[in-house]
Amino acid sequence: MAPTPQDEHDNAELTVVADMWSPACTAIRTFLARNEITCRWVQPSHPTGQKLLDEHGFTAEDTPVLIASDGRALKPTGEEQLAEWVGLHTKPTADDYDLLIVGGGPAGMAAALYGASEGLHTILLERWAIGGQAGLSSDIQNYLGFPDGISGSDLTDRARRQAAKFGAELVISLQADQLRPTDHGFAVHCTDDVTVTARSVIIATGASFRTLDIPSVDKFNGRGVFYFSALTEAPLCSGSDVYIVGGANSAGQAAVYFSSCARKVIMLVRADSLAVEMSSYLIEQIASIPTIEVRTSVEVVDASGDTHLEHLTLRDRKTGAVEEVPATWLFAFIGANPATGWLDDSFARDDHGYLLTGPDIATVDAAAWHLERPPLHLETTVPGVFAAGDVRAFNGHRVAAAVGEGSMAVMLVHKFLHD
Ligand SMILES: Cc1cc2nc3c(=O)[nH]c(=O)nc-3n(C[C@H](O)[C@H](O)[C@H](O)COP(=O)(O)OP(=O)(O)OC[C@H]3O[C@@H](n4cnc5c(N)ncnc54)[C@H](O)[C@@H]3O)c2cc1C
Fold first, then answer.
1. Residue 37: strand, helix, or coil
2. 153 lines ligand 1 (CB under 6 A)
3. Do 219 and 330 belong to one domain?
């Protein structure tokens, strides 16, 4: 049984009154945690929750409700409204910039830092939370300069402060849905009808996680089934059994992370060995933790429960044998797709949807480049628009690669603007 969380962060400035198993509650909790906003969370049925709701004129049916220590209360209707209410920067301060970056993961943040520090009037648009996928990592061990590892949230916090120090404008809750050339550069339109223009653009929209795509499992999203959210949910899993689906590094890291609080961690891996996708340092670490069980050649095929996840059905991929196991927590880390759906066909992609840039254009789709000069490294098939990080074809899908490319893209932007 999960702990009652009202004692956690008792001094937090913000209280969320919400039912633990409501997907809306999970979404808010995750959004706040990813944006480094500490909150305490109270069940509506708890006397404290009932009292708070009464005091602010709400009932349990209105939850989730947020209550700030200064007395303000909000029944949120959307992420942008929530972001604004908690004081995040959600509106650009100018109409036109030298450099516009879309995406606030490591690639975008590196680009923002280098752009601003080298004198470019720089804005970064992020749809959700600064940090991207890396912000979800519990322990990044292979990033240069951190021999003892660093958590994604710590790395994100440092990057955010560093980019802001140089004057980069970081705007949250703006999702780009169109990019078009203008007479002087480019215009990026966002979902809530904000348009920002700039002389150059770096696309750093990375990749979005895949879901298991099993209707009976999807039914429990946020009610026992979670994607890439080890950091925010771990405190609730204390003393429980935790199932992790996936066999790559992100799943391995999560298993290690959960092993410090869960009773037992069971990894469900489709491949017949962890070695297929995982780094050897992590395989060794997992092998040394007795409370982690690795089950290979296994997949989830069904789930059941009443208000939340209660059972999983697993299938042995070799024998076809099926078994039902009691399960309250399932965390899936099963890869990602490129976040390029918002771009039109003038951006050439590889077979998986990743953006082609620089010399790769000539090898994969030469006809997509229309200028006499060859494309600059990291330049997409739209001249003056660059791509960096996981969104780019043939990228290493690592924090270091994203940071390197984000920084390099700024050098190329300078070259493009001055040639
Ligand atoms: C759990 C986990 C653990 C990991 N551990 C490691 C590790 O230990 N070492 C390592 O090297 N790598 C690790 N990785 C991989 C690493 O995090 C990624 O390679 C890296 O984050 C890629 O950075 P990026 O900036 O290119 O893209 P992302 O991190 O994917 O960031 C893209 C950002 O763009 C935003 N975005 C997308 N579309 C839009 C839009 N239309 N408008 C506005 N914003 C948009 C997204 O919200 C996101 O914040 C891990 C990944 C995960 C998920």
1. coil
2. no
3. yes
Domain boundary among 334, 354, 379: 334
List the residue whose alpha carbon is closest to atom 6 of ligand 1.
140
C-alpha 109 – ligand 1 centre gap (Å)? 11
- One DSSP character per residue, 55-113 reads HTT--GGG-SEEEETTS-EE----HHHHHHHTT---S-S-SEEEEEEE--SHHHHHHHH
CATH of the domain at 51: 3.40.30.10
Residue 333 CA to ligand 1 center (angstroms) comes to 13
Q: How far apart are CA 386 and CA 378, in angstroms?
A: 5
Token pair belonging to 355: 């953006």
Confidence of residue 280 (pLDDT cuts 50, 70, 90): very high
* 90: in domain: no
Which of ligand 1's atoms lies nearest the C-alpha of 397?
A: 19
Could you tell me if 404 and 297 lie in one domain?
no
Instruction: Kindly state whether residues 357 and 313 are assigned to the same domain.
Output: no
pLDDT tens per residue, range 198-209:
999 999 999 988
Residue nearest to atom 41 of ligand 1 (CA): 176
Residue 202's CB is within 10 A of a number of other CB atoms, namely: 31
The reply to whether 132 and 57 lie within a common domain is no
Ligand 1 centroid to residue 74 C-alpha, Å: 30
Return d(Cα 338, Cα 276) in angstroms, integer: 22
> Which CATH number goes with the domain that contains 322?
3.50.50.60
Does residue 168 share a domain with residue 20? no
Q: In this predicted structure, what is the pLDDT of residue 5?
A: 44
